[in-house]
Structures are given as structure tokens and as C-alpha cells.
């Protein structure tokens, strides 16, 4: 007879085999160009490059091939092997000592280590556009790239044999017909309500919600479902988390050069959630995060500038001017990179040390934007009405005066001293609660910045006026001469004539509804990025987004009402042979839930979830009933209790803006599902709920499948469940059975 544990493994975690990725290629390319190449160029190429008169030790480091081949001592590195790579040994002064002039700063060693650990990405040589040096980067060829062109809202086509249909489907069906693909049939109603609820709320529908939707045959049942979900306060939690990936949100605790905690970071997170729940127009969403402190008509928007303030703020590892300047340069680079990749899908940070290798972004334009943030400083601000702030200030003034008077009384009249002591005690007792504060930014200057030759702040080049990017603003953009330039930058990015902002956000929304964006490189629309799979559809959606007042909720509704969204995910061999990765949307791609939605769903079906919206970060999320959104996470992903659990299930690093998450299947995940105290506790909680809500074994099994999967149990599943439950003690068998169901792939999947 099978043991209960052996039978339990039949139910447990199964996913199609994948390999752990180290991040999308666009992110690796940006990291290489902005971080790795500058270190190699500045520290190594004088002795180890093809331009050197004679490469020392026979080693050149200016191509991947030469690095892997190595020199007299062998290969310079082994991708992924940080302990055995000679390049890392040398810069760590571990047996070898390079460069001989002195050991590299710790942050540069960390950059090279991270690069090797992730596989030592190097861009393909053939992909580089050949541009004569004297021409520069603002060439007609580069400026003709599709992404810089104005949005063109063409009428949806009329595919042969189809009725008028939804505008999105008219674009999709036309492409499918051209590729010889047939669309999958519609998803059944149980699948559809589960898909929509998980997509918009990150939580599964209740059995009662599923049955109500299945029984409702009115033509507006599905639109009403979407409207109900969009009005839920949990919508902002779900979609706020998507944005926080882009915003590289964390509670601080970075590397030793960025170690400070950010105890009020949660207030920015809550601002994002509220902004999405309120359907704040996306152009205002952009402006407030860049320059909310400068908007007179929205004083509470200062909290939105946490977008900038909660990023890494590097400190020097010494008091010398050089290390201070380098730390400042790294902080500025983070701000430029996060803003331009997050809102514009442009890798402007790659122009920090030289003109952009691929896109029409001269190095001078990097410093035109960096100067904006060089004029900006972090500043914790009080979040309270002015009258409340004045009352608190007046009270403090009175208490300080009474305390000072008491100190000077000493040997004076005892009666007077007693009176003063009573005053101080009274004022202390009446002290109002501390006013809430938020990590924000404020202007700290209005100066332009010198270009740094080869990215070295010690080598200033010409002074560069602050202005927007030529590729987007046209020739000779107007200089920004007032304030830091943040307000002008915010207006330029959020302008309806900017060809990128609406396209980029529409693409991100599409990505999270379909599992794949229309532009497969969502934070790189440049020449190295992917071309849109449906370019006319992308532009039609972008134009509609702006025409609808930049409303994200209207965009969700538009996308989710399409047949493309409501399609089944069932496999079709003919379609798979033509389009295996579903680029052309012939079916809905099945997807695994992100760790937050999966953990929240576990707590929802066991009846343990605390659905309170907002509040301070929770440091030990595995022992808390709060949604995973509220877990405190560190920038490096290894400083707080939740970090290890979240990273195990592909939670991203908060060191830089993240365009899309990796998806891995590794043995440790299955072991967590089988052996962790967290999963064992969820099994016990679900078993207690089932036994409390149903009296018979059959009824409990039915309830389990309704709660977890939103569908009836099959005869084979019922028979397997009964055999398992009959094989052991009931008090032990039900929690194990419940844990097995919770660990199944079906529960982790949005189908």
C-alpha cells in the first residue's frame, strides 16, 4: 500500500521544464553598457585591448571571444563561475593583482562579479549599426526608427469572413489569417471568471462568484464582471505591484554603499495603490512621480516622488572628493535609467560614458537629463495639512520654551520651579502624535552640468544645457532654465505628442494581461529592442488610451472585452507548429502566477487572508496574513526575512527598474511546497476550513476543488482523493491532502 506521503507527491508541484534566467536580454544589455563596459574601458583597456600597443600577458578584454580565450594564464573568465574566473581573482587581488596601480573600488568589483555571475553577457558585434564617427548618432537612419515616429491611429482592418467585431480582434484576426493560423475557441465561463479575477485582483474568485457568473446568461454578464473587479480596492494592490517592479521599489537595505533603510517607503507604495484605484490619469501619474512636490494644485502629490527618493542613494566609501563624486554619479545614473526606461523604454543610461552605441542619444543628452537630478535632493516631508503642521510646531515651541525656563530656574523660588515643572509635564502630556512623513525629493539648484569624459566625473567636458531628447523633441530642443528642470521633464514625458509614453504603458498593460507584450522588450523600444508583433494595434491602443483621458481602467476594459483575451488556452498542434510561443495570439498563453498572487491565493482559499489595504511594511510576511505586497523587501534581496522566500519564486531584484520577471523551475521550489512549515500550516488551515464547511468526505472534496480551482472534481480525482484519505489517520490525512492540492500546478496557474 502506498504511504500517504508517497501518494501526496502525485498531486504536487509540476511545471514544464524551464531554466533559470538571469533577466531579460534587454536588461542585461543595459547593465553591460551602463556599468560593465565603462569599468573595462576605464580600468583595463589601456593594457588589455586591441588598441593597446601590445596586450600585456597576451590578454585582450574588448570582445567576448578574446575574454573566453584568455591570455598566457588561460581564459579570463568562465561565465557563471565567480570563484574560478581569473578576471575576478585579479581584481580582488586574490593571487593576481590587477590593475597594478591599485585595487578597484568595491562597487566596481561588485559590478564585474554580478556580470560574470549572470553569464557575462556581451552584445553581438553584428547588431551594432555602423555609423561614421564624424556623423555622430543623430543620423537620419537612426531617427527613422519606428519608435520615434508619431503615433498613427489607423482604422481597424476588416478581416475576410468576419463581422465588425471588437477593434482589437480585427487587428489580431487579420494577422492570424496572414500567418495561416486559426484562433482557439472561447474559454469556458469558469476559466474566464478565474482568469479575469486573478488578472485584476491577484486573488481567485470565490465558489459563489464562479457559480453566479456561470448561471448568468445575460449578454452584459461579462462586462459587469469586469466593472465590478475594477472597482475593487484590491485592483490597485494587484496592478500597483506591477508598477513597483518598474519603480525598483524596496524598503532600502542595499549594498554597503547604499545601506540605509527606508522606513517610510511604504507610503509611496500606498500612493501607487490609491492612484490606480482612483484611476488617476496616467499622464498625471507620470508627472506626480517626477515632480509632484512642484505641483501647486496637488500638494499631496509630494508622496509620489518616492519614485525617485526610494531608489539607491550611494554613499562614498571614503571622504575624498573622488569617491564622493563617483557615488553621486552612480545615484544620478539610477535616476536617469529608471525614468527613461520606466516611462520611455529608452536605455539612455547607455550614453553615460560615450554616445549611445545603437540609439540616437548623444552622450551630451545623458548629462542634459542627469543635471535635472543633480539639482534634486532627497527630503523627508510631512504629510499633513498646513494647519495641523502649524499646531504641532506651535506646541513644540511652547514645550521648548517651558523646558528652557525650567533649566534656568535652578536655585530660584521653589514655588516658581514647581510651577514650571507642572507646565512642562502638562505640555508633554498634550504632545500630539508624530506627523506622518514620506520619503520625497525637492529642488536643490538650477544649474547645468558638465559632460563627464568617458563617464569619469574627474574629467569634466563641455557644459551641457538641460533639455529633452532630440529623438523625441525634434532638432534643437529648448533649454530648461528654471528650477531643477524636473517639472519641464515631467511635462515633456507626459505630453500627448510624445510618441513613446502612451505606447510604453499600453504595452506594459498588454504584457500583464497576455503574458507577452506586443513589443517583447518592454523597457527597450530602441534599435536593439524587438519590433512590435502588431504595430498597427499598438498605435491604435496608444491613441485610444490618450483619447480616453489616459484612463488605465478604460484600457483594461477595452482589452479584456476582446475575443483575443477571452480565448481558450487549449493546445493545438497545428497552431503550435507555426507559432509555438504564441506571438500572434492564436490562443491565450497559460501562465504561472507571480509569487505575490500565488501566496495571496493560498491565504484566500484557506480563509486566513487579511484584506486590509495599505499600511507599514511587514517584516516577516510568512507568519503574517497580510497580502504579499506589504512584505518588507531589501534592495539586494538578502537582508530581510521575506527575501529568501520571494527570491525562490522569482521575485525581482530592486537594484534597477525591472521590465519583466524571470520564470524558473528549480527543485527548491518543489521542496518548499512539500516540506516548508509555511505550506504545512496552509494545509492544516485548509483542512480545518473543509471539515468546518462540509460534513461528508465527498462534500469536502467538492468544496476543495470549488475553492482552489473553480471547477467540479473529476471521477478520477475523487477516487484518488478517497484512496489517499482512507490510507491513513484522518486527522493527519486531511492536512496532507489539502497541502497537496495547494501545491498543484493548476492552483499556481492562470489559464
Tell me what the structure shows.
The chain folds into five domains: 4-16 and 674-750, no CATH class; 25-127, no CATH class; 167-238 and 500-587, no CATH class; 281-380 and 441-494, no CATH class; 397-435. Strands 1-2 form a two-stranded antiparallel ribbon. A two-stranded antiparallel ribbon has the order 3-4. The protein has helices at 4-11, 25-43, 64-69, 86-91, 106-117, 140-143, 167-179, 189-201, 207-215, 221-230, 233-246, 265-277, 282-291, 306-309, 321-344, 363-374, 386-409, 414-429, 470-473, 486-494, 501-514, 535-547, 552-560, 573-578, 595-606, 641-648, 667-675, 677-693, 697-709, 715-726, 730-742; strands at 376-382, 437-443, 449-452, 460-464, 591-592, 749-750. The chain has 751 residues and is mainly alpha-helical. Helix 8 (189-201) runs parallel beside helix 10, helix 21 crosses helix 22 and helix 30 packs antiparallel against helix 31 (730-742). The chain has 31 helices and six strands.
Amino acid at each position: 500500500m502506498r504511504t500517504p506521503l508517497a501518494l501526496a507527491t502525485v498531486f504536487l508541484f509540476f511545471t514544464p521544464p524551464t531554466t533559470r534566467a538571469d533577466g531579460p536580454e534587454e536588461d542585461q544589455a543595459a547593465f553591460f553598457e551602463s556599468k560593465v563596459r565603462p569599468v573595462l574601458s576605464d580600468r583595463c583597456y589601456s593594457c588589455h585591448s586591441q588598441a593597446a600597443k601590445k596586450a600585456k600577458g597576451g590578454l585582450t578584454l574588448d570582445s567576448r571571444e578574446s575574454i573566453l580565450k584568455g591570455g598566457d594564464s588561460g581564459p579570463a573568465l568562465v561565465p557563471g563561475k565567480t570563484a574560478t574566473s581569473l578576471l575576478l581573482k585579479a581584481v580582488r587581488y586574490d593571487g593576481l593583482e590587477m590593475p597594478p596601480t591599485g585595487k578597484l573600488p568595491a562597487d566596481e568589483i561588485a559590478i564585474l562579479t554580478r556580470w560574470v555571475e549572470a553569464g557575462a553577457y556581451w552584445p553581438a558585434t553584428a547588431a551594432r549599426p555602423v555609423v561614421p564617427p564624424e556623423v555622430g548618432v543623430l543620423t537620419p537612419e537612426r531617427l527613422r526608427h519606428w519608435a520615434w515616429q508619431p503615433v498613427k491611429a489607423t482604422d481597424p482592418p476588416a478581416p475576410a469572413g468576419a463581422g465588425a467585431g471588437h477593434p482589437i480582434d480585427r487587428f489580431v484576426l487579420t494577422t492570424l489569417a496572414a500567418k495561416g493560423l486559426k484562433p482557439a475557441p472561447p474559454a469556458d465561463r469558469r476559466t474566464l471568471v478565474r482568469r479575469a479575477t486573478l488578472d485584476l485582483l491577484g486573488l481567485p474568485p470565490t465558489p459563489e462568484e464562479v457559480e453566479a457568473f456561470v448561471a448568468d446568461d445575460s449578454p452584459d454578464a461579462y462586462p459587469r464582471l469586469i466593472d465590478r473587479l475594477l472597482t475593487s480596492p484590491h485592483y490597485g494592490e494587484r496592478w500597483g505591484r506591477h508598477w513597483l517592479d518598474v519603480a525598483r521599489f524596496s524598503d532600502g537595505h542595499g549594498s554597503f554603499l547604499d545601506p540605509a533603510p527606508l522606513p517610510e517607503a511604504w507610503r509611496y507604495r500606498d500612493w501607487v495603490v490609491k492612484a490606480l484605484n482612483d484611476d488617476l490619469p496616467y499622464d498625471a501619474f507620470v508627472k506626480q512621480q517626477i515632480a509632484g512636490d512642484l505641483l501647486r494644485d496637488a500638494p499631496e502629490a509630494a508622496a509620489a516622488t518616492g519614485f525617485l527618493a526610494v531608489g539607491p542613494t550611494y554613499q562614498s566609501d571614503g571622504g575624498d572628493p573622488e569617491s564622493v563624486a563617483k557615488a553621486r554619479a552612480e545615484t544620478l545614473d539610477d535616476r536617469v535609467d529608471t525614468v527613461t526606461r520606466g516611462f520611455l523604454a529608452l536605455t539612455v543610461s547607455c550614453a553615460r560614458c560615450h554616445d549611445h552605441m545603437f540609439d540616437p542619444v548623444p552622450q551630451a543628452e545623458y548629462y542634459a537629463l542627469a543635471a535635472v537630478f543633480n539639482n534634486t535632493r532627497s527630503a523627508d516631508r510631512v504629510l499633513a495639512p498646513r494647519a495641523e503642521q502649524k499646531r504641532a510646531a506651535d506646541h513644540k515651541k511652547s514645550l521648548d520654551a517651558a523646558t528652557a525656563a525650567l533649566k534656568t530656574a535652578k536655585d530660584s523660588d521653589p514655588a516658581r520651579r514647581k510651577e514650571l515643572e507642572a507646565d512642562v509635564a502638562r505640555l508633554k502630556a498634550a504632545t500630539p502624535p508624530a506627523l506622518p512623513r514620506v520619503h520625497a525629493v525637492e529642488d536643490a539648484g538650477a544649474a547645468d552640468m558638465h559632460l563627464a569624459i568617458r563617464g569619469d566625473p574627474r574629467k569634466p567636458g563641455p557644459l551641457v544645457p538641460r533639455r529633452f531628447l532630440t529623438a523625441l523633441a525634434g532638432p534643437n530642443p529648448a533649454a530648461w532654465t528654471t528650477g531643477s528642470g524636473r517639472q519641464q521633464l515631467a511635462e515633456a514625458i507626459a505630453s500627448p505628442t510624445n510618441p513613446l509614453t502612451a505606447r510604453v504603458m499600453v504595452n506594459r498593460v498588454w504584457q500583464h494581461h497576455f503574458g507577452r507584450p506586443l513589443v517583447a522588450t518592454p523597457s527597450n523600444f530602441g534599435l536593439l529592442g524587438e519590433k512590435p508583433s502588431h504595430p498597427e494595434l499598438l498605435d491604435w491602443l496608444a491613441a485610444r488610451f490618450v483619447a480616453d483621458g489616459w484612463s488605465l481602467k478604460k484600457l483594461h476594459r477595452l482589452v479584456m472585452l476582446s475575443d483575443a483575451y477571452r480565448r481558450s488556452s487549449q493546445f493545438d498542434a497545428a497552431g503550435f507548429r507555426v507559432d509555438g510561443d504564441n506571438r500572434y495570439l492564436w490562443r491565450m498563453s497559460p501562465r504561472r502566477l507571480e509569487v505575490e498572487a500565488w501566496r495571496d491565493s493560498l491565504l484566500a482559499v484557506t480563509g486566513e487572508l487579511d484584506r486590509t489595504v495599505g499600511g507599514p511594511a511587514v517584516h516577516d510576511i510568512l507568519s503574517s496574513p497580510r497580502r504579499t505586497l506589504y512584505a518588507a523587501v531589501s534592495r539586494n534581496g538578502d537582508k530581510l526575512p521575506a527575501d529568501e522566500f520571494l527570491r525562490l519564486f522569482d521575485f525581482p531584484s530592486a537594484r534597477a527598474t525591472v521590465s519583466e520577471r524571470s520564470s524558473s523551475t528549480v527543485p527548491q521550489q518543489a521542496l518548499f511546497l512539500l516540506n516548508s512549515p509555511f505550506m504545512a500550516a496552509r494545509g492544516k488551515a485548509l483542512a480545518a476550513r473543509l471539515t468546518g464547511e462540509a460534513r461528508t468526505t465527498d462534500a469536502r472534496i467538492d468544496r476543495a476543488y470549488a475553492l482552489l480551482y473553480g471547477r467540479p472534481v473529476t471521477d478520477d480525482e475523487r477516487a484518488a482523493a478517497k484512496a489517499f484519505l482512507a490510507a491513513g489517520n484522518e486527522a493527519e490525512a486531511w492536512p496532507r491532502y489539502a497541502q497537496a492540492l495547494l501545491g498543484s500546478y493548476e492552483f499556481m496557474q492562470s489559464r
